[in-house]
Write a structure and sequence with these properties.
Elements (H helix, E strand, L loop, with lengths): L1 H10 L4 E4 L8 E7 L2 E10 L11 H6 L1
Antiparallel strand pairs: 1-2, 2-3
C-alpha cells in the first residue's frame, strides 16, 4: 500500500515525465525534468523499505 501511495505522490509532481524501464516490486524508477528545462532529464529510483516501529537509530543511542 505504501509503495502505491509513494508512486502516486511522485507521479503527481509537476516535474514528473514518465516511469523508467526498471520497475519491479521493490523498486520504481522514474524520470523527472529539471525546473524550467523539460528536455533535461533526471532519473530517480524510489526504493521503499519498512522499519519496525520500535527501531532506534545507532546515532540516537550514541547521543545518550
Amino acid at each position: 500500500m505504501a509503495v502505491k501511495l509513494g508512486s502516486v505522490a511522485i507521479e503527481a509532481r509537476p516535474n514528473y515525465k514518465r516511469r523508467d524501464t526498471h520497475d519491479s516490486d521493490g523498486r520504481i524508477d522514474v524520470v523527472m525534468h529539471a525546473n524550467g528545462d523539460p528536455d533535461r532529464e533526471i532519473k530517480l529510483a524510489f526504493l521503499p523499505s519498512s522499519l519496525p516501529r520500535d527501531a532506534t537509530s545507532r546515532f540516537a543511542e550514541a547521543k545518550r
